[in-house]
Amino acid sequence: MRKPSEIQLRLDLGTARPAGSSPAPLRCDRYVASSALQKAIRRADVVTAERAALALLNADPRSTWRRLIVIAAEDVGIGSVDVVVETTRLASDLKLRGRQGGEVAAVLHVCRCLAEAPKDRSTDHLICAAAHEPGLEPAREACGNIPVSRRLEFVSDLTRSLPERAVAAWYASGIENGRERRVGAGDLDALMRTYADVGAPGPLLDAIRTAVRRTREPITIVLPLVWLALADETPRIDNAALPQSTYVNGVPLYALDMHTRLGRQAIATFRRDNAEIARYLSEHVADFRRDRALQLAVFFADSALIRPRLCWRQAGPIERLGIDADFASINVTPAIGSQLTELVRQNLAHLNMIRADILAHYQRGEREAP
Q1: Mean pLDDT rounded to a whole number for the chain
Q2: Does 131 fall in a domain?
Q3: pLDDT in the model for residue 367
Q4: Is residue 259 one of the residues assigned to a domain?
Q5: Backbone φ/ψ region at 119: left (φ over 0), alpha (ψ -120 to 50), beta
Q6: Do both 108 and 38 map to the same domain?
Q7: Residue-wise burial string across 144-170, b where 16 or more C-beta atoms lie within 10 A, e elsewhere
């Protein structure tokens, strides 16, 4: 096991910034800033979200607004459709940002709104299931071999399951998943009309049109479907506290996950130095899949936590389906993925020691920790 770090870690819950004060940008690169922004919003950590947003805004203003649109769709979603709509409008309207008080004021306003809003990550889980869930392969095969008009009929067919309709909506949109080339041509406007025909509200659809065109992210495509699934329910909000966060010079360690170079370095060291993790991986996961499996486990154990959470009937099953699909994408079974994630939770203090060492070395200008 790695020896305890000599770095003194600060634990807090991201208390509110005093009124009238101006937050200082986080001291980190744009990639850690982007990761910290999203994870801090997930945890309702307003101060860290604001500081991360300013660091990203200084590096790349356009990337900042694109990231905020994705966060709104991926992490807030049906938790607060009004916040999703407002975020998208501000992100796409420079004059509106001017009336908000300028670029910085608009970014800080959106960060606070997103962080304080109820969260629902069903869009992310649903699109992961649409892409990777083995049980949805027949739906993917069917949608890949029919015209857009038939895909749209599947979207509005209430006899089909929500994941099947998500596959149809994704394929009907024509929006590829990153560099993949599998959905082919689509008709985004026709998809929006289909959503409107089955009851999705106009302001949400306007926001989705903008979000899709600005981000090209399929996550945004399925948000109206999730809204429609919630329509007949009365959800509740769970604002239970999350485990305390750990920071080094203001940068949260939960930002160092598989989406940053420093995070991948820390997770690789964790795999090497933690005997319990190393043993479990060697016994249950093929060698060439171990890095990715552990990265996913760290993400779900630490980086995907949200508050306040919107609780509704289908949220749990959708979440389980999406997590299982993520592990299925690397041929790791749901049981092993779940057990590995729990093992990471039990060893999170050790991972944080490693992450703190790596982050502190980086902040001192030493590119690699010893």
Answers
A1: 92
A2: yes
A3: 53
A4: yes
A5: beta
A6: yes
A7: eeeebeebbebbbeeebebbbbbbbbb
Instruction: Give the CATH number, domain containing residue 59.
Output: 1.20.272.10
Q: Which two tokens stand for residue 78?
A: 């049906």
Q: Looking up tokens 């309207």, which residue turns up?
A: 93
110 and 127 inside one domain: no
Clarify whether residues 183 and 102 are in a common domain.
no
- Has residue 143 been placed in a domain? yes
Q: Could you tell me if 89 and 81 are in contact, meaning their C-beta atoms sit under 8 angstroms apart?
A: no
The domain containing residue 198 runs over which residues? 122-233
Tell me the C-alpha distance between 188 and 21, whole Å. 43
pLDDT, tens only, 142-194: 999 999 999 999 999 999 999 999 999 999 999 988 888 888 889 999 999 99
pTM (predicted TM-score): 0.91
Say if CB 119 and CB 75 are below 8 A apart.
yes
d(C-alpha 299, C-alpha 323), whole Å: 10
- Structural domain contains residue 136: yes
**Cβ count near 63 (within 10 Å):** 14
Q: Enter the DSSP assignment of 3.
A: P
Q: Give the integer Cα–Cα distance in Å for 295 and 282.
A: 15
Residue 244 contacts by C-beta under 8 Å, 6 or more apart in sequence?
A: 11, 12, 13
Chain centroid to CA 194? 26
Domain boundary among 116, 136, 169: 116
Per-residue DSSP letters for 68-84? HHHHIIIIIGGG-HHHH
Q: How many domains does the chain have?
A: 3
Domain endpoint, select from 233, 268, 286: 233
Beta bridge partners of 11: 246
